[in-house]
Amino acid sequence: MMAGYIVRRAFGCRNLFRLPTCALHVCENSPVKFCMTDDTTRAVISPPMPNFIVESRRAFAKGRKSKDEGGVSTAEVPPNVGPNIKASASSQMEAAMTALSVELSKLRTGRASAGMLDHIIVETGGVKMPLSRIALVSVLDPKTLSVNPYDPETLKQLENAIVSSPLGLNPRTDGERLIAVIPPLTKEHMQAMNKLVTKSCEDTRQSIRRARQKAMDAIKKLNSILPKDDLKRLEKEVDDLTKKFIKTAEDVCKAKEKEISQG
After folding, report:
1. Highest mean pLDDT among 83-87, 141-145, 191-195, 203-207
2. Topology of the domain covering 81-103+186-261
3. Among 11, 44, 13, which Cα is nearest to 27's?
4. Tell me, what's the pLDDT at 7?
5. What residues are paired with 44 via a beta bridge?
6. I want to staple 147 with a disulfide (CB 3.0 to 4.6 A). Which of 112, 115, 178, 220 is the partner?
7. pLDDT tens by residue, 71-90
8. How would you classify the pairing of strands 135-141 and 127-130?
């Protein structure tokens, strides 16, 4: 009874305010604390620390950055961070090459090509679609194209779209198809086409270099995490990728210029 009385008295306000001036002794594995003063001894029940607080402290300690032997903080890096950076750069460079191919296909040369009409947009039934989706284009000879619509009702719309394109073609109706003769290029036309090829090539180079710069910026952010040798190797791989794509773009443009010059 006396012990119970002492415990209940320990929760009184006056006794609690006296605690800071006491010498507090803690018994291991016991919630009861004994506060001793000059003239009396009081027992105070201290509830155990909740488990979630203990666990959160442990988790916080585990989540701290580890330190190497030299005392420098380090952080774990995903093993695929380098390949991801290169893959992203490669994807952007490939997109630049695709855009280049589309632009070059719009330029007419003196030779017939099945893909030279692909970029033409045809409006039929209130819907605009690429010519390649509503007609089959084939090469009859080096100077002649045949355009066969999947739906004969669209023949007139196909003819108008081809005439309105910047290719300078004037197709004629041949039954349920169109025949387009490729006229020879004039000197002025060749010069104009070559200028467009040069511009397209430069635009592609700039797009590839922008992709390279984005990759380099991403690599710089790893400067405090990855070893210098790994960073240099990654930078070299991105540079090699850049050179490869630029060379490919230049080769494609040179082939187009040669095609134009041959009329």
Report:
1. 203-207
2. Topoisomerase I; Chain A, domain 4 (1.10.132)
3. 44
4. 44
5. 33
6. 178
7. 444 445 566 777 899 999 99
8. unpaired
Domain boundaries defined on the chain? 2-45, 81-103+186-261, 111-181
Side-chain-side CA neighbours of residue 126 (13 Å): 0
Sign, CA dihedral 38-44-50-51, equals positive
pTM of the entire structure?
0.59
> Which residue in this structure is represented by tokens 């006229």?
183
DSSP bridge pairs for 124 = 127
Fold of 111-181: Gyrase A; domain 2 (3.30.1360)
pLDDT for position 174: 92
DSSP readout, 27-93? Answer: -TT-SEEEEE-SS-EEEEE-PPPPHHHHHHHHHHHHHSPEE-TTS-EE----TTHHHHHHHHHHHHH
